[in-house]
Amino acid sequence: NYNEEFRILLHTSNYIQNRLRKISEKFERIEKQLNKIKFKVSAGKVNLKKIEGELEQVREEEKIAKNVLVQYRLTNKYHRLCKRRDKKLEEQNNLFERQDKLFQRRDELIEKTKELKIKLKKKLKKVERIKGQFNEKVE
Predict the structure, then answer these.
(1) What is the per-residue pLDDT across 103-128, written as a single tens digit (0 to 9) for each?
(2) For residue 20, which of 104, 123, 126 has the smallest C-alpha distance?
(3) pTM of the predicted model as reported, rounded to 2 decimal places
(4) CA–CA separation, 136 vs 16, rounded Å?
(5) How far is residue 13's CA from residue 130's CA, in Å, rounded to a whole number?
């Protein structure tokens, strides 16, 4: 009876330890994804600044241009740059949303890990108690 209970508790604690390991692996994957997103976000900010600079330059050139054709071309260029900027901003927003989801998932995994560690401690205490009782019986 003690052997059976001990075996079950050992199996349960091994199961919990495996789940903890899997959660930590998921956690590491999420951290890597977050780092990639952070890099993309910072690169996107640099891109946006560059595009904003180009927009400002085109605005200045547009003011200076007297020739209607040149002004037309500059206006087209300005609108293309605006579209590019808007697309980059949308990409940034998508990255931020994804980042938020990953942070949320990471927090859930942290919480799950805490719960499993508490369960594991309880099971290990029970295993130690049964082991002690078993040793007393053997002696």
Answers:
(1) 999 999 999 999 989 988 888 888 88
(2) 123
(3) 0.54
(4) 28
(5) 14
